[in-house]
Design goal:
With 552 residues, this protein is α/β, with parallel strands linked by helices. 35% of the residues lie in helices and 18% in strands. The protein has 19 helices and 23 strands. The chain has an 8-stranded parallel β-sheet with strand order 16-11-10-23-20-19-18-17. A 7-stranded mixed β-sheet has the order 3-9-7-8-6-4-5. The longest helix has 18 residues. The N terminus is likely disordered. The structure holds acetamide.
């Protein structure tokens, strides 16, 4: 009996009914949503759009109308209208009406559903896209599919929704160095992000185990640096499967991914990880390495871990190489943010390398209680690359190691070794993106029983722990303003297939979306879990995602 009551109350929690079709809990939950009486008939409803709405947004709205018509089995006409907004204000519209509303916050939107009309207001393209994403979650899940399903209940419950995100940067990261994923698989990754209103894909394109982007001036980066002789087997760092592995994304594939993401309102933030994590580049251009670095010759690394083989940044030739590479990548990606890595750069080789030591001397860098001379040498690299990229209109992001010593004004810190680096950065006035590993590393196991999951790097990060993350903990209100966003990271040492990638991403990305979007007062783990069980799982099923079916 108790169990039956639990099931009934979970079902009630997952859906609200108000004399209309039941309304599933939307994820991420809108800032406010008030159900009113009645419902709006969607099948065959006309779509109207204020004629001043940007042509690209009109295309997005038209695409939604066409898809709705296909799935609901009845045509939805699309018209642009002059003065539609004034008519909306006087409640003199019927059908769908899309109107600009400049007073709404960036990426915010409002939806008003009455039995006569669905009025959507937003001030930006992403605002309109998120309104459509919300409407889709209010429709039968068939809307996510490709098959006409005219028999479904094609009504939207009447309601008033006012929504805007808590954070402007809402990201997922993807490591394509340790393992590569096809263009189609990356598109599926982006599709899932878009359902949950994320707007940044942080694309980790280079590392010790493979260089994955063509650079015209340095062809050996992909000819040599994109291929390793084998891959370590499971957790045995002394092993090697002996199977050549690699590849890279061509310029046209990268353009295709950028354009696809852009259609979904997602910006791709490229990462060139420097000055460590560069062994693949050293295999291609050994002259950029530190003198006497062992073992030689350099090889694209076949195992996981932190390589000691790093760039000799004391050489001007190396710095020019870095500027050329980031310059070319900056020209490819429209993103204002450019990630320059900066994590896990061991100092061992720099301490022995005459060029690095000469540079330390030349710059007068000293070791003290704050930082070593080698830490300051990394500051020199970070600052120089930051300056170079800012000349191209870019803002740099670095992993939290870049904070050691002196970081240049305007840099954004990505806090991964817990929230500590992010807290320190925010207190110093740097913008921060929180990716605290214990809450945001989706390469960790998601269930307690490791034996029933694919191999993972370690750790234990269930859905509920992702959901519990508080990105501004430890900061007062004025410091918390520097927290610009939240991101989860997916490192792929142990993830070789698209299927496995989806399993690690989902459903934890759904929990993440409420951390990114919702004010703390809107968060409710039980609501999110029941929405997952009753509704989100059906969306993932219809789209064919491979996801972890158990939630802990
Ligand atoms: C990192 O996980 N090394 C940023």
């Amino acid at each position: 009996m108790k169990r039956l009551l639990c099931i009934i109350s979970a079902a009630l929690l997952a859906t609200c009914s108000f004399g209309a079709r039941s309304v599933p809990d939307i994820i991420p939950a809108p800032k406010s949503m008030e159900l009113t009486k009645g419902s709006f008939k969607v099948r065959g409803a006309a779509f109207n759009c204020e004629n001043t709405v940007d042509a690209r947004i009109q295309n997005d709205i038209m695409a939604f109308a066409d898809h709705l018509a296909l799935i609901s089995g009845k045509n939805n006409s699309f018209t642009t209208t002059v003065g539609l907004r004034a008519n909306c204000d006087k409640a003199k519209v019927s059908g769908f009406a899309f109107v600009p509303e400049e007073s709404l916050p960036a990426e915010g939107y409002r939806i008003s559903v009455t039995p006569k009309a669905v009025v959507v207001r937003a001030s930006s393209r992403n605002g309109f896209l998120y309104a459509i994403a919300t409407l889709k979650q209010m429709l039968p899940v068939a809307i996510y599919g490709k098959e006409p399903s005219p028999k479904e209940d094609w009504n939207i419950a009447c309601c008033e929704i006012v929504d805007e995100p808590r954070f402007g940067y809402r990201g997922m990261h993807l490591d394509c160095s340790r393992h590569m994923f096809s263009v189609e698989q990356i598109k599926r990754y982006l599709d899932a992000m878009a359902i949950y209103k994320m707007n940044r894909l942080h694309w980790h394109l280079t590392d010790d185990q493979g260089w994955r982007i063509e650079i015209a001036k340095y062809p050996r980066l992909t000819e040599v640096g994109a291929y390793r002789k084998g891959t370590q087997i499971a957790k045995d760092r002394t092993s090697n499967d002996g199977v050549r592995y690699g590849g890279y994304y061509t310029r046209s594939q990268i353009d295709e991914i950028i354009a696809y993401a852009d259609k979904l309102g997602i910006t791709i933030v490229p990462e060139i990880d420097l000055p460590g994590h560069m062994q693949a580049a050293l295999a291609a251009y050994p002259e950029l390495g530190c003198a006497g670095s062992e073992p030689q010759p350099y090889e694209v690394w076949c195992r996981w871990g932190i390589s000691k083989q790093v760039l000799s940044v004391g050489k001007e030739e190396t710095m020019r190489f870095l500027e050329d590479v980031v310059g070319e990548v900056a020209d490819i990606f429209p993103s204002e943010y450019f990630h320059i890595g900066g994590d896990e750069c061991p100092r061992d080789e720099w301490q022995k390398d005459p060029a690095c030591q000469a540079k330390i001397k030349e710059l007068g860098l000293v070791s003290d209680s704050e930082a070593s001379a080698e830490d300051r040498l990394q500051n020199y690299v970070t600052n120089r690359i930051q300056k170079y990229l800012s000349g191209k209109g870019k803002r740099v992001i670095g992993w939290d190691e870049v904070l050691k010593g002196e970081l240049g004004e305007g840099a954004t810190v990505m806090s991964w070794r817990g929230s500590k680096g992010g807290i320190e950065a925010a207190k110093k006035g740097f913008d921060v993106i929180m990716t605290a590993n214990k809450f945001m590393y989706f390469d960790y196991y998601q269930l307690q029983d490791k034996d029933i999951q694919p191999l993972a790097i370690g750790g234990y990060l269930p859905f509920s722990k992702v959901y519990s993350f508080d990105p501004t903990e430890g900061l007062n209100a004025s410091e918390a303003k520097f927290i610009k966003g939240v991101q989860a990271n997916l490192w792929t040492e142990y993830i070789a297939t698209g299927e496995h990638l989806e399993y690690m991403m989902l459903p934890r990305a759904i929990a993440l979306s409420e951390v990114q979007w919702c004010q703390p007062s809107r968060k409710d783990l039980e609501r999110a879990k029941s929405s997952m069980a009753e509704h989100q799982s059906r969306i993932l099923d219809i789209l064919g995602y491979n996801y972890c079916k158990t939630i802990e």
